[in-house]
Amino acid sequence: MNCCPHCQGADKLFNEDRARSSLQDYRRHGPDRATKRLLEAIESNEVTGLTLLDIGGGIGAIQHELNAAGVTAVTGVDASTAYLRLAQQEAAKRGYAAEARYLHGDFVALADQVEPADIVTLNRVICCYPYMEALVGAAAARAKRYLGLVYPREVWWTKLGIRGLNAFFRLWGSPFRNFVHPTAAVEQVVADNGLHKISQRDGLLWQVVVFAR
Q1: Region label for 155, one of left (φ > 0), alpha (ψ between -120 and 50) or beta (otherwise)
Q2: Which of 106, 136, 121, 154 is nearest to 50 (CA)?
Q3: Which residues of the chain have pLDDT under 50?
Q4: Is the full-model pTM beyond 0.90?
Q5: What is the pLDDT, as a whole number, of residue 12?
């Protein structure tokens, strides 16, 4: 399995300008709605002293918020160089960079280098990766307590929207694609790794789900 072209496309798409814009929005308004829902679901459990693995975490909104809530160690993995760099800079600004580790690249390829964590999050990452079983399986296997997912609802309007986005990427010449992976297939991979659903909230586009071991 070679995901290099797709991940290279992600690195180009999620570039410096987009990363800086995302960070500015986060500083002004806090996490977006779907991310807030995920954080609320996770923080409804005691998180003080726990560790976090945030896969595809962008500018690190989940990392920053859960660190403020008491998480003591953070690992961030991202295919975007720009987003990962800004997440690290923001962690330094917030005073917890010494407790954070950052890895650039495809999480599935890097998974053997990543220690398990109490909390593992995939916030709008499943939809950006072609090999769902490998991604979700590797993430679930490293979740010691909780696995938090935000991914598209399997409904006609998300499928239509993603087809439109992928048509744009083709015209642009980008190898990056979005996906609506079947919900039942995602949940089966999670269940096969010994976790069960404890929370779900659905929005218009996104489903926000937390599983526990």
Answers
A1: beta
A2: 121
A3: 1-3
A4: yes
A5: 73
Report the alpha-carbon distance of residue 173 to residue 169 in Å, rounded: 6
| Nearest-10 Cα torsion for 36, 111, 76, 59 | -70
**Tens-digit pLDDT profile for residues 172-210:** 888 899 999 999 999 999 999 999 999 999 999 999 999
- Give the separation between CA 47 and CA 24, rounded to whole angstroms: 27
Token digits of residue 164 = 């439109």
The set of residues, in sequence order, having a beta carbon less than 8 Å from that of 120 and lying 6+ positions away, is 52, 53, 54, 55, 139, 140, 142, 143, 146, 147, 148
- Which amino acid appears at position 3 of this protein? C
Structure tokens at 19: 């990363």
